[in-house]
Amino acid sequence: MAxxxxxxxxxxxGGLQAVNSVSFTMEQGMIKAVIGPNGAGKTTLFNLIAxxxxxxxxxxxxxxxxxxxxxxxxxxxxxLSRTYQNIKLFHGMTALExxxxxxHIRSKAGFVAGMLNLPWTWPEERMIRDKSMEYxxxxxxxxxxxxEVSNLSFGQQRGIEFARALATEPTLLLLDEPAAGLxxxxxxxxxxxxxxxxxxxxxxxxxxxxxSLVMDISDEIVVLSFGEKIAEDLPHxxxxxxxxxxxxxxxxx
Amino acid sequence: MTPELFIQYLFxxxxxxxxxxxxxxxxxxxxxxxxxxxxxxxxFVMLGGMIAITMHSVMPIPLxxxxxxxxxxxxxxxxxxxxxxxxxxxxVLRMIIIxxxxxxxxxxxxxxxxxxxVRALPxxxxxxxxxxxxxxxxxxxxxxxxxxxxxxxxxxxSLFFKFTSLGREMRACAANRRAATLCGIxxxxxxxxxxxxxxxxxxxxxxxxxxxTYSDYSMGPNLAIKGFTVAILGGLGNSVAAVTAGLxxxxxxxxxxxxxxxxxxxxxxxSILLLIxxxxxxxxxxxxxxxxxxxx
Amino acid sequence: MDLFKxxxxxxxxxxxxxxIQVVTHFTxxxxxxxxxxxxxxxxxxxxxxxxxxxxxxxxxxxxxxFFAIGGYLAGALTTHNLITLKxxxxxxxxxxxxxxxxxxxxxxxxxxxxxxxxxCIIAVLTAGLIAFAIGGPILKxxxxxxxxxxxxxxxxxxxxxxxxxxxxxxxxxxEVPGFKLLPGIxxxxxxxxxxxxxYIAWGMVIVAVILLLNLIxxxxxxxxxxxxxxxxxxxxxxxxxxxxxxxxxxLSAVFAALAGVFVTHYNGGIGPSEAGVMKSxxxxxxxxxxxxxxxxxxxxxxxxxxxxxxxxxxxSYDDAVFGVILIIIMLFAPQGILNINPGQKVKSxxxxxxxxxxEETTE
Lengths: 253, 296, 363
Hints:
Strand order of the largest sheet of chain C: 1-2
Number of helices of chain A: 10
Shape of chain C: globular
Largest sheet of chain C: 2 strands, antiparallel
Distance between the termini of chain C: 61 Å
Shape of chain A: globular
Mean pLDDT of chain A: 90
Radius of gyration of chain C: 22 Å
Helix content of chain C: 55-70%
Strand content of chain A: 15-25%
Low-confidence stretches of chain A: none
Number of strands of chain C: 6
Oligomer: heterotrimer
């Protein structure tokens, strides 16, 4: 059974069919990219999978569990984590604290225990802190651990968001345009990082505009246009697919 | 309930209802141009009434009312220019607290000028016992004044927003502030104008209602909460629906006297407010789809 | 090390509290202790609200309502005479399990009232349950809607207090007896126990501060702050945001109710103004002045402003002062008075006027 299975997913906004009968599956350990022109419904698809939006119809199975209709935090606890196109960090908190939130579902000290500062929560807090530092280190942003995130550069913020998502130890990671706003060196760096994450056994679904990055790292590509899936294939086949070329370059092309 | 009593209650309900609707429209005008809920909206009504009463001691009623409305509009403009204009994209929380502060300040100033005593403008025609008979029920002509003037204001406003270029510019500002700026509309002035307008209509309502409901320095918050209830009932920003919702609330309140003790009358609006916020925060007539796209 | 850093201010506070008591003893100004005791209780409401607003990011304009629920229930239960109901099954059951106390009234009549401990628990539990019940739907709302809904809740409580005979209508409840916490330790306004009550109140503040400091530095506290930072992302990290918001709402309501119970016993009564909207606004003002997400700021401002207000320093301008404070803080220092940077503010004001006159000349 596939890790992620999407069946006939639909979502409308008023008269606009943002996602139209989209189906695909993802096997454990692969990198799959979703591409398409602006407004093709890529981010909507992500929001449907992560539970931020309810679907009008269709099903999403994650690890053989039906997840549509569940709340985002419930889906996160099943092992799905995500990043956002326009980075969403917790402002007013340091970089380290941001990543520590990623350890939330991997720890359990509750309300009363926290209020009374019970000794058994101490080793857990230390674990959370150490693990989070490791992830900051992995992303090369350990240096800004104690800095409030609003004061960091765009690249550093992206790194921290990545570290936060990884800190949840997900089985499936959704990356919404991980290379947006990065220069070519940083983009190459992100590419290497994504491959490294995959090697550690994490399955990755990404939306990306940078074609060289997508072609480089993906095992398979899904192409969306006006909410519909128009192709799903290996990267070099997608490059040759006439329908895809037409959608990207227009009819005259 | 006799038919006469029924009509009497109905007119009482309509009178209050249309005043609530005016307050709600005041909320809507400012909300539409700025995204701010002006918690001081009720204070405009209070100021209008109180200033008119003071002015009446030196001039006839019509002049006193005009003076009161103009002064309140100036106050509205000043509030916007001093407290709102120069803030760059303030958070909602900040704006809530600032307008609450303004409302407290206005009330305290009123308290120190006029004291705690309850005052009233004299009846425009006749006195408190003058009445006209409508379907057998005795209705004070002042009630007809309130209903007439407020209805005219509602009609005037909708014509203003539809057919004058200034009104259209304000609507453009409401629809998309940045785009309006790019089209050469001075959105900052539109915001000032929205404060002036909503202060003005509040003041008019404050004057015409004063003979019936009396005026005192502390009347604002109660009116504001009812106006807000009505604005929410109709769907925030929707002034046509606010009139319907206002009449609905006014009539419910008026008839509640026959079932509930008077002391709880004011709690009705608040309960309706909570209920509607819990169940349909986008209002009775709004669509949830559109509401979810708005940012609060 | 971290723990030392966290608790060091608490020890300093303790030292200051003791120091003030000693100084007032030798300068014979112990009358100040009365207002300091009251300020301490009000500050418990304020720091609870601070965690809800500053850390959880949820405004409440209804916390005077929770204070009043605590105060009014405790006052009514320990004051209303149940002697005429003695034959009633419920009353005799309560009497048998020791929840009621017999005493002699002012004019020698027999009084049968609820034991203050039981009343306190009932009052605080009620406030907590009400917060729990309304918290679910209320905390789904954001911004203006949340503010108005909490305001509406406050108004309803105020109206109930004002309209029901059981709660004394406009007069409120008076002649509330003292609250014996332990033998020899009683919360009451009597002259002889002034110093003792000062320490009871401040003990409560210190316990509350420690609990809240622990909370915000814990896993749950982090989750709360993340809700303020970016609710959607917090949800995506597996934080059940709705539940945490509810917890902190209930906690702050319980703090407010507890303060209400103690203030009522201390003052020997409670009136409807304690439930008024102005009180709620005042609590919000103090949290804002303290810097929103700053327990110490809220505590210091809570003590200072309440003390000045209770001393009557603001005279008939009491409410006006809080209104002005709200406006000024939110206009010039939304990060609170302790984080103010006057130079920068002047600059931004100047640049506004300069750019404005610039606009006019180009037109």
